């Protein structure tokens, strides 16, 4: 059974259990991969984390129920996984911008997030240059900020780079051979710590943060082209084209973007994406 069919089966389980508790471990088992790999893959392919997709789908169905039934709001709150009418109302307001009771009125505009579907597209004509490499543990030192995976992660990181003082960038770069961007991983609240850092064996200055990365196997993707366009394209292709056919899945560890010295806007600028992987 291929990756596409596995993802469809996982979505079927999620959709069949929107009115019940959804077991993330079982979702991953149905998709025949680790829980971490499924959630990372889902977030990249769909554009929102799995938990946010489930929240939006439940509130979409709740809106349908409000408009098409006389079911009490407290019952709908419990039906879609909320412990109280207040918590349900806050979530409903955040998505639909009206209260649940107001949603019952005729002519009220509501939002609907349809069920996600997966379909086959013919890709792979353009080559991807990568290598599998075992690396010993290493340390990155730099500055970090925590960002949401839901609200413009790429834009937030771009803003972090532009607003970090050049003096700080130079200090970090001087600790090692060039700069890296590091995603620490996804936390339960759909956030990630992002580091502008250097790989170094030097002591960490008190003003900077340190992250230890263990010995891992990495899939390292070579990129040639201007930033950020060239790197963004490869990020998308890693999850939509490479992982489904590679025989690897994402290890639960940070991801690294490596930047060479040079003109970032140049057509021959070199960079890399390092993804920690394990054999399926």
Count of the separate structural domains: 2
Major beta-sheet overview: 9 strands, antiparallel
CATH class of the largest domain: Alpha Beta
Taking the alpha carbons of the first and last residues, their distance comes to: 14 Å
Residues in helices, as a percent range = 25-40%
Class derived from helix and strand content: alpha+beta
Number of strands: 9
In the CATH hierarchy, the architecture of the largest domain is Alpha-Beta Barrel
SSE string: HHHHHHEEHHEEEEHEEE
Q: Find the CATH superfamily of the largest domain.
A: Regulatory factor, effector binding domain
Count of runs of 4 or more consecutive helical residues = 9
Instruction: Give the uncertain stretches in residue-range form.
Output: none
**Nearest-integer average pLDDT:** 92
Describe the structure.
- There is one protein chain.
- The protein is α+β, with helices and mostly antiparallel strands and 280 residues long.
- It has 2 domains: 102 residues, Orthogonal Bundle (Arc Repressor Mutant, subunit A); 150 residues, Regulatory factor, effector binding domain (Multidrug-efflux Transporter 1 Regulator Bmrr, Chain A).
- Helix content is 39%, strand content 22%.
- α1 runs antiparallel to α2.
Write a compact overview of the structure shown.
The chain has 9 helices and 9 strands. The protein is α+β, with helices and mostly antiparallel strands and 280 residues long. Strands 1, 2, 3, 4, 5, 6, 7, 8 and 9 form a 9-stranded antiparallel β-sheet that branches.
């Amino acid at each position: 059974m291929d990756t596409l069919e596995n993802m469809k089966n996982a979505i079927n389980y999620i959709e069949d259990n929107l009115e019940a508790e959804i077991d993330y471990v079982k979702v991953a088992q149905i998709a025949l991969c680790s829980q971490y790999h499924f959630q990372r893959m889902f977030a990249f392919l769909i554009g929102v984390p799995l938990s946010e997709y489930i929240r939006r789908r439940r509130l979409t169905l709740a809106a349908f129920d409000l408009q098409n039934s006389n079911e009490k709001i407290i019952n709908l709150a419990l039906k879609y996984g909320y412990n109280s009418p207040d918590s349900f109302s806050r979530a409903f307001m955040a998505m639909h911008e009206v209260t649940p009771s107001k949603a019952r009125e005729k002519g009220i505009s509501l939002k609907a997030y349809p069920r996600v579907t997966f379909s086959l597209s013919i890709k792979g004509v353009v080559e991807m240059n990568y290598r599998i490499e075992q690396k010993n543990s290493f340390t990155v030192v730099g500055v970090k900020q925590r960002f949401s995976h839901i609200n413009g992660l790429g834009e937030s990181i771009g803003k972090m780079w532009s607003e970090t003082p050049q003096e700080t960038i130079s200090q970090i770069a001087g600790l090692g051979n060039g700069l890296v961007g590091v995603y620490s991983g996804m936390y339960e609240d759909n956030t990630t710590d992002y580091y502008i850092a250097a790989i170094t064996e030097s002591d960490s200055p008190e003003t900077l943060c340190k992250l230890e990365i263990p010995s891992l196997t990495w899939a390292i993707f070579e990129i040639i082209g201007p930033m950020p366009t060239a790197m963004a394209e490869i990020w998308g292709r890693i999850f939509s084209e490479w992982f489904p056919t590679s025989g690897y899945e994402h290890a639960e560890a940070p991801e690294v973007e490596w930047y060479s010295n040079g003109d970032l806007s140049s057509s021959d600028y070199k960079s890399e994406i390092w993804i920690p992987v394990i054999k399926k």
